[in-house]
Amino acid sequence: MTEHIIDIKHLSKSFSGKQVLSDINLYIRRGEFVTLLGPSGCGKTTMLRMIAGFLNPDEGDITLEGNSLIGVPPHERPLNTVFQRYALFPHLDVYDNIAFGLKLQKIPSEEIDKRVRKVLKLVSMSDYEDRDVDTLSGGQQQRIAIARAIVNRPKVLLLDEPLAALDLKMRKDMQIELKEMHRQLGITFIYVTHDQEEALTLSDTIVVMNDGRIQQIGTPMDIYNEPVNAFVADFIGESNILAGQMVRDRRVAFIQHEFDCVDEGFGEDVPVDVVVRPEDIYFTTDPAKCQFKAKVNSCTFKGVHYEMFVDTDTGYELMIQDYDPYPVGSEVMLYIDPDDIQVMKKERMANVYEGEVTGEGKVEFLGTEFECPTDGFSSGDKVRVTVRFEKVDLLDHVEEAATTGHVEFILYMGNHYHLTVRTKSGEKIWVDTNDVWDKNDYVGINILPEDILLEKVEEDGQEV
User: Fold this and answer.
1) Which phi and psi angles does 375 have, rounded to 5°?
2) End-to-end distance of the chain based on CA atoms, in angstroms?
C-alpha cells in the first residue's frame, strides 16, 4: 500500500484569464492531517474543490491511491466535504441528516442505525438524534455536518473553513474535538483555513499558499521557527522582519549591529532578510551580555505576556513579548541568541520587467509608457527594465500618476514599509517607503526618468 494517498502534479487553474493556481505539486500521506493555509484568494479553496471534484483543472493530475480522479464525478470519489456553511437539510432531523447518504446507497437499516449512533457518540451528540437541526447552535450544527461526512467512511475528509462561522470559544473547543476525531478515525484530513493559530493547533503538515503557489510545506514547528521567506514569516504569527547583510557563515548584520547566528552557505556580504520572533528578544541587566540598547515606547498586557515596542539605539522599531513589563520611556539592554535568528534569502533585489522602447525618451512596461533616457536604444528594442524599490513613488492623487494600482501586501521592516502593489495591468511592483498605507488602498504610481535602468535584450532573451 502506497504511503501517499493523494498526489497532486502540475495542477493549474485560471478563471477569466486570471491564474488562480500555478503548477501545484503536493503529496499527502495516508492518515495525515494536512492544512492548506493562506490569505483569501490564494487558491486553497480552489485546490480543495478540485480534489473533491467540483472543479476541473486546466492542467495537471490528481491521483487517489495511484488512480487519476480527473473526470470522476464527486459522488463517485471516496471523499466527503464539510463546508463552512453546514448545508444541513432543514426538513430532516439530526438522525436523518446523518443517515441521508447511507440511505441513498441502500445500506440495510440495521447497519445505518449502528453507524449513525456510532458517529453521534464520536461527535458528542448522542442524545440529539430526534432534534430539529434548526434548533441547534452553530457548533452543534457543525458537529452534525462532520458526522454526516464521516458516517460514509470516506478515505479522505475535506474541510473547507468549517469553523469560520463559530465564535472564538466554540472555535477553540471544536479544534480540540477535530484533533481527537482525527486520532480516533485514522483517516486523512485535508483542511482549508486562513487562521494561522488554527493551522498550528490542528496540523501534522501545513501547506502555506499565496498567489496560487505553494510558499512552504512543513510541520507547524518548521513553519513557525524556520520560515523560508518574508511572506511566511509575516503570515505565521508575529515577527520582526528586517533587512540584513550576511557578513560570513554564522555572522549576520541587521539593525546596524552584527550578531552570531547558526546559518551558513549564503556567502559573504550578501543581502538577506532576517526574522526574529518577538519572544526571542531578551532583556538583560548584564552589560557584558548586552548586544544593543533600546527605549521602550509602549507596553500592553496581552493576557499571558506583555507586548512592547522599542526603538533601538540605531533607529529601528522592534516588537518584544515578555512575561515581565518594562515601563514606557525606560532604557533597556537587549540580546538575541544565535539559534533565534532566522536568515532567509532575499526573494528579489529590485523590480525587473520586460519592456520595449517606444520612441525617443520613452519605454513601455507595466502596461504603461514611461519617460526615461533611451540613448543608445532604438524604437522597438526589447529591454529589461530595472527599478529599485525605493525609487517608486506612491501618490494619493492618482490623476497625477503614470499608472495606478492597489496595495496588496504590507511588510514592516523595522524602519520602513515594503509594499506589494498590484498594478492595473495585473503585474506587481514592490515599493520601499516610510509612508503609511493601508491594504487595498488605491494608489498612483510614479517613477522618475533617471530611476529607470534599461538593458537591451535580444530575441532569445539574452542581455546584450
Assistant:
1) -60, 130
2) 54
Distance CA 445, CA 406 (A): 10
**What residues make up the domain containing 390?**
351-456
Distances from the Cα of 243 to the Cα of 231, 240, 256, angstroms: 14, 10, 10
Q: What is the pLDDT of residue 459?
A: 64
Q: Would you say residue 464 lies in a domain?
A: no
| pLDDT at residue 319, rounded to an integer | 97
Residue 386 buriedness (CB in 10 A; 0-12 / 13-18 / 19+): middle
Cβ-contact 234, 411 below 8 angstroms: yes
Question: 463 lies in a domain?
Answer: no
CATH number, position 255: 2.40.50.140
Take residue 205 and report the three cell numbers written for it.
503538515
Cα separation of 42 and 79, whole Å? 23
| Whole-number pLDDT of residue 463 | 58
Going across the sheet that includes 362-365, the strands are 368-371, 362-365, 351-359, 382-387, 453-456
Confirm whether 462 is domain-assigned.
Answer: no
Using a 10 angstrom Cβ sphere, with 0-12 exposed, 13-18 middle and 19 or more buried, the burial of residue 241 is: buried
Beta-carbon contacts of residue 54 (< 8 Å; ≥ 6 apart): 74
Residues 101 and 152 in one domain: yes
- Number of structural domains, the chain? 3
Pairwise CA distance, residues 3 & 435, whole Å: 51
Q: What is the number of other CB atoms lying within 10 angstroms of the CB of residue 255?
A: 25
Asked if 326 and 372 sit in the same domain, the reply is no
Question: Is the CB of residue 158 less than 8 Å from the CB of residue 125?
Answer: no
Whether residues 355 and 341 share a domain: the answer is no
Look at residue 314 in the predicted model and tell me its pLDDT.
Answer: 96
Low-confidence ranges of the chain (pLDDT < 50): none
Helix (H, G, I), strand (E, B) or coil at 396: coil
Where on the phi/psi map is residue 234: left (φ > 0), alpha (ψ -120 to 50), or beta? alpha
| Cell numbers that stand for 452 in this block | 529607470
Dump strand ranges (E) for 169-313: 188-193, 205-210, 213-218, 240-248, 251-254, 257-260, 270-276, 282-284, 292-301, 306-312
Backbone angles phi, psi at 132, to 5 degrees: -75, 130
Number of H helices, E strands in the chain: 8, 30
> What pLDDT is attached to residue 435?
95
Burial level of 436, CB count in 10 A (0-12/13-18/19+)? exposed
pTM: 0.86
Name the residue type at position 245.
Answer: Q
